[in-house]
Write a structure and sequence with these properties.
The protein contains seven helices and twelve strands. The chain has helices at 3-10, 15-18, 50-67, 138-145, 178-187, 194-199, 225-241, and strands at residues 21-23, 30-37, 74-84, 93-104, 108-117, 120-132, 201-204, 207-210, 250-259, 270-279, 283-291, 297-307. Helix 3 packs antiparallel against helix 7 (225-241) and helix 5 packs across helix 7. It is globular and about 55 Å long.
C-alpha cells in the first residue's frame, strides 16, 4: 500500500476533507473559504508552507467563476500564481481565503485570492480559470448552488480539527547543510514530513515521485488543482532546501503553476523533475515539470525560494 493509499483510507475521501477546507457555496463576485490547519500538514521542518494550503486557494479561486457558469459547463484552473508575505504560520489555526472575480471573459476568468491568518496577510494569489465542456455531477451542482440546503448540507463546514494528526518531525541538526538534509530524506534517514506523506510524495535526487490516490479527484474526475499545486510546491521546497548552508533557513516565497492538461488520478506514479534556473546568495529560482507515466508534460511550475 502506498502512503497516498493509506491517507485516502484514514483521513478523508476528497481534497477538502483531507485538508480541512470548508465554506459556503460559490457566489459572485466574491466567495470566502476557510481551512483548519494541523500537524498533518507540516513539512519536514515542521512548517506550514504553500503545500499545506494550496487546496484552499484552488477551491476558493474557481468559486466565483463557477457561480456564473452555465449548468452545461464546468470550470478548471489554467494557472495559479502565489506571492507570499513571509508570515510564519503556526501548525494549528485557521486560514481565510477571499476570492474575488476580477474579470469574466466568457471562456476564461481572472480571480484574485487573499489568504490571511486573522488580520495578517499570508499571500495574494492570481488564478486564471477556464470553462470546459466537462460538467459537474448533479449532486455536487445542487450542493454548490444551495438547492439541496433543505434536505442536506449546503457548502462544506470547516472542521473543528483535522480528521487525523501526525507526530511532529524532529528538529533538524543545525550542523547539516541543505544538501545533506535532502540526501537524508531521499535515503530514508530523515522523514519527508507529514504533508508529503499525505500527498504520496517521495523526494528523489532530481525532484520527486508522486503517487496519486482516488481522494485527490475534483468534481470533474481529474486531479484537484490544489493537490497539483501542493506537490509542485513541495518538490520546489525540497530543491530550495538543498541549496541552504548549515543552519540556514529558507522559505518558498513565490510559486507559479501552469496546467497544460488535467492530471489523471488513476495512474500508479507520476514524476516531478526540478532544475535550478539561477542560484543566488538570497534567491534560488527553480523550474519544475510534472509528467504523466507516458512522459507527457501536464503541469509546469516555477518558484522563488528566499534564503534567510
Amino acid at each position: 500500500m502506498t502512503r497516498a493509499d493509506s491517507a485516502s483510507l484514514t483521513i478523508g475521501d476528497d481534497p477538502l476533507t483531507v485538508f480541512g477546507v470548508g465554506g459556503e457555496p460559490p457566489t459572485a463576485p466574491a466567495t470566502r473559504m476557510r481551512q483548519r490547519l494541523g500537524g498533518l500538514l507540516v513539512d519536514h521542518r515542521g512548517r506550514i508552507d504553500i503545500a499545506a494550503w494550496a487546496v484552499l486557494v484552488d477551491s476558493a479561486a474557481g468559486a466565483p467563476f463557477v457561480a456564473q457558469t452555465p449548468a452545461d459547463q464546468g470550470v478548471v484552473q489554467a494557472s495559479l500564481v502565489f506571492a507570499t508575505t513571509g508570515l510564519g504560520l503556526a501548525p494549528e489555526g485557521v486560514l481565510d481565503a477571499v476570492a474575488t472575480l476580477r474579470h469574466d471573459g466568457g471562456s476564461f476568468g481572472l480571480t484574485s485570492i487573499d489568504v490571511a491568518a486573522g488580520d495578517d496577510l499570508v499571500a495574494t494569489v492570481l488564478a486564471r480559470s477556464a470553462r470546459t465542456g466537462r460538467v459537474f455531477d448533479d449532486v455536487l451542482r445542487e450542493r454548490l448552488s444551495g438547492a439541496a440546503a433543505a434536505d442536506g448540507p449546503r457548502g462544506w463546514p470547516v472542521p473543528a480539527r483535522l480528521a487525523a494528526d501526525a507526530t511532529p518531525p524532529p528538529a533538524i541538526d543545525p550542523v547539516l547543510t541543505g544538501e545533506q538534509i535532502v540526501a537524508a530524506i531521499v535515503d530514508g534517514r530523515m522523514a519527508a514530513g507529514p504533508v508529503a506523506d499525505v500527498l504520496g510524495l517521495t523526494p528523489t535526487a532530481g525532484g520527486a515521485l508522486f503517487r496519486p490516490a482516488p481522494w485527490m479527484a475534483n468534481a470533474l474526475g481529474s486531479m484537484h488543482g490544489g493537490v497539483v499545486a501542493a506537490v509542485v510546491a513541495q518538490a520546489c521546497s525540497w530543491a530550495g532546501q538543498s541549496r541552504t548552508g548549515a543552519g540556514q533557513d529558507y522559505r518558498l516565497a513565490d510559486l507559479s503553476v501552469d496546467f497544460f492538461r488535467s492530471p489523471p488520478v488513476d495512474v500508479d506514479e507520476m514524476t516531478i523533475a526540478t532544475r535550478f534556473v539561477r542560484v543566488g546568495r538570497r534567491v534560488v529560482s527553480i523550474a519544475a515539470d510534472l509528467r504523466a507515466p507516458d512522459d507527457t508534460l501536464v503541469v509546469q511550475g516555477s518558484a522563488a525560494v528566499h534564503l534567510t
